[in-house]
Amino acid sequence: MKKLSVLLLSLITVSGFSQMNPKLQAKLEQQAKEMEPKVIEWRRHFHEFPELSNRETNTGKYIADFLKGLGIDVQYPVAKTGVVGILKGPKPGPVIALRADIDALPVVERGNLPFASKVKTNFNGQETGVMHACGHDSHIAIMMAVAEILSKNKNDLKGTIKFIFQPAEEGAPIGEEGGANLMVKEGVLENPKVEAIFGLHIQSMRPIGAIGYKSGGMMAAADNFSITVKGKQSHGSAPWMGVDPIVVSAQIINGLQTIISRQTELTKEAAVISVGRIQSGIRENIIPEEAFFAGTIRTLDEGMQDKIHEKIKLTATKIAESGGATAEVSIRRGTPVTFNDPALTLKMIPSLNKAAGADHVVSIDAVTGAEDFAYYQKKVPGFFFFVGAMPPDVDPATVASHHTPDFYIDERGFLTGLKAMLNVAVDYMYMPQK
Ligand code: NI
Predict the structure, then answer these.
(1) Maximum pairwise Cα distance, the chain
(2) Do 64 and 204 belong to one domain?
(3) What CATH number is given to the structural domain containing 68?
(4) What is the pLDDT at residue 93?
(5) What is the 87 CA–ligand 1 centroid distance (Å)?
(6) FRET label pair with 318: which of 42, 99, 236, 293, CA 20 to 30 Å apart?
(7) Rounded to an integer, what distance in angstroms lies between the CA atom of residue 201 and that of residue 189?
(8) Alpha carbon of 264 to those of 160, 258, 310, 370: distances in Å?
(9) At which of 308, 335, 362 does a domain end?
(10) Are residues 163 and 47 part of one domain?
(11) CB-neighbour burial class of residue 342 (10 A; exposed 0-12, middle 13-18, buried 19+)
(12) Are residues 32 and 180 in the same domain?
């Protein structure tokens, strides 16, 4: 008996961080395997009946009823259609949050899955289909399974788990608030106060069984900017009679690219400025008074983000001034950097390794897309990771990307996500407290 406990102790500390004991680990793993068919069944249900951001009425109600059935305390609705479940273990420990996003997209599903979405709706005045084209259906199903397994094993929990089922990750409709930002505003990280938060995203281009993560900035902050250049209108044949806002805009647009290529420390983190819109003029032989253009800024580090914003203002106004024009710059901050707390990330890697096998857990390059999980990470340390769902016999180059009509995830990838989330949650609870 003594020998056994010594053996157990050495197993627990092999990673350098305390984890749940191997017996509990084995029990959770077994229950995760048994739960797999249910995860697939739930996912198919949500896939067939997807709902757009801030319109997840049936989805939210389904989740709330399910959690109530498990005996979990439920707050509903939160942030329009969201659900928060609170599961308190009998032993003292930290309060942690696990987050799943629940919304679908205005995409017409192609392909002939038996549970394909036939839902139609009107979005911004256009008729469209609705599809879980980013895999949030799998996030809901995985998190429901985590909730069911952990409520069954409640007596082994040290501390409290908040299950956050969050609407509108893709962005609230125009003129509405929503998503993680609204969840935080409505106090989801308070009462009881959350110490750490975890989330995952399924990926169509990562192989089944693989997990990817990055310490620090993993997904980009997405900010928008617009610039109005004012010159002086003149005849196209006599530009010296006016100030040409189109030529000045062209200079500014090139100038913006040199902020990235010449003034940004790209070995530290990547950054992107893209102009996606430009408007000016009405006729070939009239130099207009004004030009307008707008774009997006992607950054992975908050210090770089602030510097790039300042440089955009400086570059635009000074180039305009040199040409006798003026530039009005407006920058709107959007989703912040999805920043994985480095200390927390390091602590959680062993938990991912147990779920997927260390060979299948990889540190990845940053992604310049954004994810609103970032709003929670602005408030508390958080860890976000990717879970693969690409079938083994497929060339990644041919895989349909997220947000497209052919988007496809293989259900055999869900179990790894379920095991990873269980490990991360329970291992964290078993780590020594600060
Ligand atoms: Ni997504």
Answers:
(1) 96
(2) yes
(3) 3.40.630.10
(4) 96
(5) 26
(6) 236
(7) 20
(8) 43, 9, 12, 20
(9) 335
(10) yes
(11) exposed
(12) yes
**How many C-beta neighbours within 10 Å does residue 353 have?**
17
Residues facing residue 158 across a β-bridge? 91
Task: Provide Rg for the chain, Cα atoms.
Answer: 25
Distance (angstroms) between ligand 1 centre and the Cα of 61 equals 21
Q: Which of 318, 335, 352 is the last residue of a domain?
A: 335
Distance in Å, CA 281 to ligand 1 centroid? 38
Whole domain around residue 393: which residue ranges? 2-218+337-430
Amino acid identity, residue 420?
Answer: A
Nearest partner of 290 among 228, 364, 371, 234, judged by Cα = 228
398 lies in the same domain as 289: no
Minimal CA–CA distance to 166: which of 78, 62, 97, 87?
A: 78
Q: Are residues 353 and 309 in the same domain?
A: no
Confidence of residue 12 (pLDDT cuts 50, 70, 90): very low
| Residue 323 sits in the same domain as residue 251 | yes
pLDDT at 73: 98
Give CA separation, 161 vs 220, 229, 259, in Å: 28, 52, 44
Give the amino acid at 17. F
Q: What is the pTM of this model?
A: 0.92
Residue 285 belongs to a domain with what CATH number? 3.30.70.360
Q: Which residues contact 54 (CB under 8 A, 6 or more apart)?
A: 80, 81, 103, 167, 168, 172, 173, 176, 178
Torsion angle (degrees, nearest 10) of CA 77, 82, 88, 94:
-130
Cα–Cα distance measured from residue 175 to residue 238, given in angstroms and rounded to the nearest whole number: 44
Q: Which residues are catalytic?
A: 103, 169
**Length of the chain, in residues:** 434
Q: How many whole angstroms from 170 Cα to the centroid of ligand 1?
A: 7
Band of pLDDT at residue 30, cut at 50, 70 and 90: very high
* End-to-end Cα distance, the chain: 31
Distance 135 CA to ligand 1 centre (A): 6
Q: Which residue has the tokens 């308070």?
A: 190
CA distance 225 to 277: 11
Spatial separation of the C-alpha atoms in residues 315 and 327, rounded to whole Å? 10
Instruction: Among 13-17, 97-101, 107-111, 326-330, name the one with the lowest average pLDDT.
Output: 13-17
Query: How far is the C-alpha of 247 from the C-alpha of 234, rounded, in Å?
Result: 13
Same domain, 235 and 255: yes
Residues 230 and 200 in one domain: no
